[in-house]
Design brief:
binds pyridoxal-5'-phosphate; 460 residues; alpha/beta; 16 helices; 43% helix; four-stranded antiparallel beta sheet; globular
């Protein structure tokens, strides 16, 4: 079989996978036992003998896709991963085929040009005309990179001398766990993460922040950075960035905005107020594979001071890093990764298919749907909604203990006709919807509500 024939087989199988999901002809998810699944897929024998082409490829894809979670299904509402624009996935094919490992310019000029332009487009959306950035394999690495840049500016010797003492990282209990991981990886230690005071909904409280930072200093510790949520993970709420930025400026503290999920509202004239003041921050993280509808993984780390990012990684690799006159840029100085996929291409293909206004409309639609879903759920006597949604995330619970919420999710997931997640926030466990799918409508939420109520009221 030729590559083109196998490619046709693959694309046909993928289209059927999406179509079945859209028509509710297949479950959202199934979870076979992994050992049995590996045997059914004949993975070991294919590795040993080859032959994954033509009819065998078709057969493999059928089984593979049958055991793949269908993000295209309108009742897939669990996690903050995009249903990619289909043409966006073609970027992954182009990237995989050309394999232009673009750590250095000469290994992928076109990929580097796309990445640099996409990064500049994102910097522009923040309102930074200067600035530097890079794309990384995910928001977690991007958060680490931004915090390394913060550390390099405050304590440049930390790179060579290792563990640094007396510094703390300030965030909130609602911050993504990658912030605490970054503290541990950087050698600060996870115990050096300090939670700033929050309001009743868990948003960082700018009024209490100056006193809190003073207290940290009085105890002999120096804040390395304050991390604000540009859309918290569990509830999707935005910290008041402008007011936090004013405090950080007064105190000379680096402000990092974790906008992995929520920075995409910068595209919408209606929603960008949620990120108001972001241009006053020192760094921002923004994922493409969440609300920009790009395939995984592509996240941007964006830094206001163009030189600060170069400080994040100060190592030598003589075969790669040598002064050279060249017409482009090397991203290798700016990321944890050496070899890197053409991440910009994934964002670019996803947005360029219909243009940025279409993505903005998508974000607005999903936000409207979340508000409508919250109203519908709130109108149900046995259901409580955590907060009025600011983006596309809705948290709710059925009257009863935390265990009941977990039991409801477990039941739905085992059946496979709905896929939702749960999250802890405000001291309790909630059922959580991340409405990423443009095919999800309010009738899917109505149907989910009936199922949830039915499961809750069934005798155990
Ligand atoms: C998703 C998310 C992350 C992690 O990003 P990955 O791309 O999954 O590594 C970090 N912070 C926030 C607020 C997120 O929503």
């Amino acid at each position: 079989m030729t590559f083109q024939e196998d490619a046709r087989i693959t694309v046909t199988a993928l289209q059927a996978f999406a179509d079945q999901a859209l028509e509710h002809e297949a479950p959202v998810l199934v979870q076979p036992q992994i050992g049995q699944l590996a045997r059914d897929l004949e993975i070991e024998s294919l590795i040993a003998e080859g032959g994954l082409e033509g009819p065998r490829l078709m057969q493999f894809l059928e089984k593979y896709l049958a055991a793949s979670t269908r993000l295209h299904h309108p009742r897939c509402m669990a996690h903050q991963v995009a249903v990619p624009v289909s043409q966006g996935a073609l970027a992954a094919l182009v990237d995989g085929f050309t394999n232009n490992a673009m750590a250095i310019y000469e290994m992928g000029p076109a990929a580097a040009a796309v990445e640099q332009t996409v990064v500049n487009w994102m910097l522009g959306k923040i309102g930074w005309r200067e600035g530097a950035g890079a794309l990384t394999h995910g928001g977690s690495l991007a958060n680490l990179t931004a915090l390394l840049a913060a550390r390099a500016q405050l304590v440049p010797r930390a790179w060579e001398e290792g563990t640094i003492y007396g510094y703390v990282l300030v965030c909130t209990p609602g911050s993504h766990y990658s912030v605490e991981r970054a503290a541990a990886i950087m050698g600060l230690g996870s115990k050096r993460v300090r939670y700033a005071p929050t309001d009743a909904l868990g948003r960082l409280d700018p009024e209490a922040l100056p006193g809190f930072l003073d207290q940290l200093r009085a105890k002999g510790t120096t804040p390395l950075a304050v991390v604000a949520n540009g859309g918290s993970t569990a509830l999707g709420l935005y910290d008041p960035i402008r007011d936090i930025a004013a405090v950080c400026r007064d105190q000379g503290v680096w402000l990092h905005v974790d906008g992995a999920h929520g920075a995409s509202v910068l595209l919408s004239s209606r929603l960008r107020h949620l990120m108001a003041g972001v241009e006053e921050a020192q760094s921002v993280v923004w994922d493409g594979h969440k609300l920009l509808r790009s395939p995984t993984l592509c996240a941007a780390v964006l830094i206001r001071d163009p030189h600060a990012l170069d400080g994040a990684f100060q190592e030598e690799a003589s075969y790669l890093f040598h002064d050279k006159e060249q017409p482009g840029v090397d991203f290798i100085h700016r990321t944890v990764e050496c070899t890197k996929a053409a991440l910009g291409l994934k964002i670019f293909f996803s947005i360029a298919h219909s243009g940025e206004r279409a993505i903005a409309a998508h974000i607005e639609r999903q936000t409207d749907l979340a508000k409508e879903a919250a109203a519908l759920l709130r109108a149900t006597p046995e259901i409580e909604v955590a907060v009025e949604p600011e983006t596309n995330i809705v948290c709710f619970r059925v009257a009863g203990p935390d265990e009941l919420q977990l039991a409801i999710r477990k039941r739905l997931t085992a059946r496979g006709d709905y896929y939702i997640s749960t999250a802890e926030a405000l001291g309790r466990r909630w059922l959580r919807l991340a409405l990423m799918n443009p095919a999800t409508t309010i009738s899917d939420i109505t149907a989910l509500r009936s199922e949830v109520v039915k499961i809750a009221s069934a005798k155990p």
